[in-house]
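User: Run a structure prediction on this.
Assistant: Running it now.
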Amino acid sequence: MIRKLRRFVVVPVVLGLLATAPAVYGGLRWTGMDPGLTVNGHAINVHLEWPEEHTCSIRGPMQVAFGVPASADLGEIEESSGEFDCDRDGVLDVQLTTQSSVVEYNKKHDAVLVAARVKALARFPVRVLVYRDGEHVKTCRGVSNHVVKCPPVKLEQ
């Protein structure tokens, strides 16, 4: 009888903990930067996100690489920058920027590849959100100081 009671209590508790885990991860306050590029008339924007409390450990520009088809018609890269108040004294004391590059590849499919890296003194989660013409199409996850690669983003839907 006690074993059945234990199962009756333990199983819902474990399921409840599993159900709340994404909310805890998602409950972090995220901040970010968003460089972009126009490829064959489509606006491709990348939003780099990290937990807000790690902003002051970021070092150097955040790197974003766009892999585009060799025959692509490209627009200008739109870099992103921002100032952040690390010690919350009202003074903006950290300037962060992105540094983007374009790499051509010889593939027949019409897609863009995105890879990003956030260099930092600490290890923390990083999200790379990719938008095509203002619509969110991919979310890729990784950690700081490592390259986060996203699957190809098709230019045509």
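The first helix runs from residue 2 to 26.
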